[in-house]
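Troubleshooting: if your tokenizer reports a length mismatch, compare against these two reference records.
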Amino acid sequence: MYKGLQPPSTDLDDVGDDTELSQYGDVIYFKDAPHAGSDVWWGLSLWTDHLSVDELARRVRRRRANGADRARYTTAGALREAQFCIYHSRDEGHVTVMRKAAAVPWTQEDRDAFNAAFTEPEPAGGTP
């Protein structure tokens, strides 16, 4: 499990292809690139397993899901095919997704590849 405050010196890639990953977002926004100034400015944090919208809202926002909350899903293999590295990080259940060689900033092509690896967002309570 990598917990450094700088990008890893090698392309860490220790999450199995079949591992399901969940991302929290809302009706307006899902993070699709790292942001300068964040703790992990070279990658994005996702959760392992297929977590419900409510589970994600509780973990990310520390509250129950509301009508604006959404979740989307992918696998480590789908992100790896799009040229991302996925490794265990931070805390139990977290993974970090980064471009090969921790390339930043992510280009629009990188963002598009990241977004294309996910299912359509699901609202709290399931498919609309």
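Reference record two:
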Amino acid sequence: MFTTLMKVTTLDSLPIAYVSHDSAVEKKVLLKFGEVPHVPQLAVATLKPGEQATMHFHKDMTETFHFQSGTGDMEVNGKVNTGSENLVVIYFGIV
């Protein structure tokens, strides 16, 4: 049985962290592992113009992405922002 959880936060109040597979890509973690069942993490990542996230996959979860703002390309072989604005991506995993 799930318990009711409501977490209210703002991006400005969260510290900057970095994704494990690309130490230059900034993220802010909205939900950490263990806070919500079956969701290892919910985070907002920012890829600066020309910045790229290395192609990777997770054997233990499905990762989903929501592009919030900016311009960029998402390819099967990775992601790269080819525009002049930061690409802001909300992402989370499901196990």
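Descriptive notes for reference record two:
- The longest strand covers residues 22-31.
- The two ends are 17 Å apart (CA to CA).
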